[in-house]
Amino acid sequence: MTVSPISTLGLRTLELVGHLGRVAMFLGHVGRVALKRPFRLRRLVNEVFDIGVLSLAIVCLSGATVGAVLGLQGYTTLSRFGAAGSLGAVVGLSLVRELGPVLSALLVTGRAGSAMAAEIASMVTTGQIDGLRMMSIDPVDFVIAPKALAMLLVLPMLSALFVTFGFFGGYVVGVELLGLDGGTYLSSLEGSIDFRDDVAQSIVKSVVFAALVGIIATYRGFHAEPTSAGVSAATTSTVVIASLAVLLFDYVITALWSV
Amino acid sequence: MDGGAADEFRVRFDGVHLRRGKRQVFDGLSCGFVRGQITVVLGGSGAGKTTMLRLIGGLSRPESGSVYVAEEDVTRLSERELFRTRSRIGMLFQGGALLDSMTIFENVALPLREHTRLSEQEIAAEVNRRLAAVALPDTGNLYPRELSGGMSRRAALARTIVTDPEIVLCDEPFSGLDPINVRRIEALLVDLNRRLGLTMIIASHHLASALRMADRIVFLVGGRAIAGTPEDLLRSSDQRVLEFLRADSDGPAETAPAAAAAVHA
Questions:
Q1: What local confidence, expressed as pLDDT, does residue B8 receive?
Q2: What is the ipTM of this complex?
């Protein structure tokens, strides 16, 4: 029997639809238990610490570096047109609209999303998840929901930090290093950023990215094969799928916003 | 060969078929576990001992057939309904399945915190009593990784029975333990059964301890069960049973399937 490319395509599509359906059901389950008592506050705080506090260094450092590079690149290009005074606008807009939410989501995916998937997957492998089930404790309620919720809370804040440190990086390069007037930089930055168009878009993006990363990481970990290869597959696929999802949704949100 | 009447069975398999990949694990498996007795499930590696326990707990589902726990068919229950049935069951997993992010105390306290309205003081008293009962006093503040294999097995046992389940499932409680720890766990299990009248189902390939502690033995072979008392088993004329017994008495031959079971479980 030969399988035509078309029927393979059909099979793959069906698999994808089935997968999306399971993710949606998983998402519903997580949402339901997150809103229901008991609210596992202590577990949530621990997760916020793991994802948030431990990601601070990488997010702040990356933000400052990206801001500095933007300052450098922007200054060279802008001064060719005699528009170096708009450096603040260039740095500000690119960070707020795109680089802040996108890069912080990608960084947190690599730093915390992968760790989350690996931890859950190894709990599956060592029988801890089944152990919870046998104690009549819903593992989605006990393990998954605090992690997903923590991601939802923390990523937007990290994204804001990334942006702030980016402004600072741009300032250091543009003003301190290249001699642009500090007031010009800041007023151009302030004048160009609109709340509805830029800041709101930034927040919406980082919330959507947080939901995506949180649900993809927990889903991949929770449905990992109970083997060591399963743990590594869950970790890898979390990073790959979550990164692609972030970039794809970034385009979609940007496109919808300008409609 | 089956002793007890059907209504005495607290757990019962009825025509269970299960396939794992290309391998037929259960091929019309039917057998029962009598209330208040210790039943040891024997069988070589891959005979389906662990799978049997997972079916009872509703962690796996068969392709066809029924598994009754307290007259309720767990194969037809939703995950939420299973939570009610599982409150009757305690399961001791082979690796212990203790949550490694929590201390031993928190692990044992977890079922009480989740399912009872006991105060923190009452919980502490109960947990310490259970830890003392498994000869692990003063380990409450340690994490599972800080315990030896035998100790974490006993801590897991304390967690399994802390809510006083009426049915206790043990998956290979002796594997990887030295003879002293084997005897210690054996004594704990027998004591629990005699004192509280628990129905115990123990999956093991450890023939000697099975013969010592079992009221009944279920021998899994070829996807079906041969059930009876330990004496029945020793008198059996079934070729496959004899082969298992003979391999065990040969000594070294026993370690091969045992090691394989430990790897596959």
A1: 81
A2: 0.86
